[in-house]
Specification:
This protein has nine helices and no strands. By secondary structure, it is mainly alpha-helical.
Length: 203
């Protein structure tokens, strides 16, 4: 049976599965080489698919980039954010988020390590939909951290602090740890944990 013989819902399901396979590989490539390392032809070659098939799925390079950014977000949420929701709000959830993030970078979940560390520097000065999507995801991560710092301080679990600054510092430490891991520097995650433990010290 050819794809044309499949019922419409079957073709849609197959297309969704193919799109998921392509974007998962695209995330790995972009985490190592940046989104600019992606092209429809590159993915077709890597995955032994027709370029026209990839073109049908995404239509343009920008759409491919946007789909890759969204796929990275979904995978990150599944690996880092969602598992931490089972921890109590505040300090315990912050520790879970940090532990999950370090695990995400150490494994790594993506071939090149942190997807945003690889791509935000390339797009921070390039206005457009891809920059907007990356920036929005980064703001969401900082907002999540800041909200938990506020909860921890309000509950008296940690000393009063500027939650937005603490979130900024946490993100900076984790990004530095990701770079150190990619450079095979020993003790990077231990240093990151020590730095963030300082922010989470009891009052």
């Amino acid at each position: 049976m050819s794809e044309d013989d499949l019922p419409a819902d079957g073709r849609l399901l197959r297309g969704a599965r193919t799109r998921k396979t392509v974007t998962r590989h695209a995330v790995d490539v972009a985490s190592a080489e940046g989104l600019d390392g992606l092209s429809l032809g590159r993915l077709a070659t890597d995955l032994r698919m027709s370029k026209s098939g990839i073109q049908t799925l995404f239509r343009s390079k920008e759409n491919l980039h946007l789909a890759t950014v969204e796929a990275a977000r979904e995978l990150f949420v599944d690996a880092v954010v969602r598992p931490a929701q089972s921890a109590p709000p505040g300090a315990a959830r912050l520790r879970a988020l940090v532990a999950n993030w370090i695990d995400y970078a150490e494994k790594p979940l993506f071939t090149g390590g942190c997807f945003w560390a690889a791509n935000l520097p390339d797009f921070d000065s390039r206005p457009g939909p891809v920059r907007d999507a990356l920036a929005r995801q980064h703001r969401d991560w900082l907002a999540l951290l800041a909200a938990e710092y506020r909860r921890a301080a309000a509950a008296g679990e940690i000393a009063p602090l500027d939650a937005d600054l603490a979130a900024f510092q946490t993100d900076a430490v984790l990004t530095a740890a990701n770079t150190a891991l990619r450079l095979d520097e020993p003790g990077a995650t231990a240093l990151a944990r020590r730095a963030i433990d300082g922010l989470l010290a009891p009052p």
